Amino acid sequence: MTINKCRKIRDKSYFMKKTIALKYDKSAPEIIAKARGELAKKMLQIAQQYDISVYKDEDLAELLYKLELNQEIPETLYNAVAAVMAFCYEVNSEFRERIDSMIGNKGNDIK
Question: Which fold has domain 17-103?
């Protein structure tokens, strides 16, 4: 007779793809939209349609998904979100121009 003491049942929704949309306006970045499953796929399609930069980090998405909408990113996640912002700065000229105008960086690349 075998007894399985470590049987663990997981909710399948835990493994669904999650997407997060961030907004940055001079203070800390904040969550402006989040979705999972089919809605997450739709969010990605819309991002592609409007040429919005997409950064893939499933672990970070999982952490950010737990935050409320319109909530600023906590300081503990600043470094991780800074990597996302740096990626967007590199690949998206419109984002780069907006950030440069916010910090007064006239045509000088931030590296």
Answer: name from scop (3.40.1690)
**DSSP secondary-structure letter at 30?**
E
8 Å CB contact between 78 and 39: no
Domain spans of the chain, in order of start: 17-103
Please give the C-alpha separations between residue 45 and each of 23, 25, 35, 62, 77, in angstroms, as whole numbers: 18, 24, 12, 20, 26
Could you give the CA distance from residue 15 to residue 37 in angstroms, rounded to a whole number?
9
Q: Name the residue among 60, 73, 2, 1 with its Cα closest to residue 32.
A: 73
**Would you call 4 exposed, middle or buried from its count of C-beta atoms within 10 A (0-12, 13-18, 19+)?**
exposed
Pairing relationship of beta strands 30-36 and 18-23 according to DSSP bridges:
antiparallel
Coil, helix or strand at residue 5 = coil
> CA 72 to CA 55: how far, in whole Å?
19
pLDDT by residue (tens digit) across 10-38? 444 445 689 999 888 778 889 999 999 99
Q: Does the pTM of the predicted model rise above 0.70?
A: no
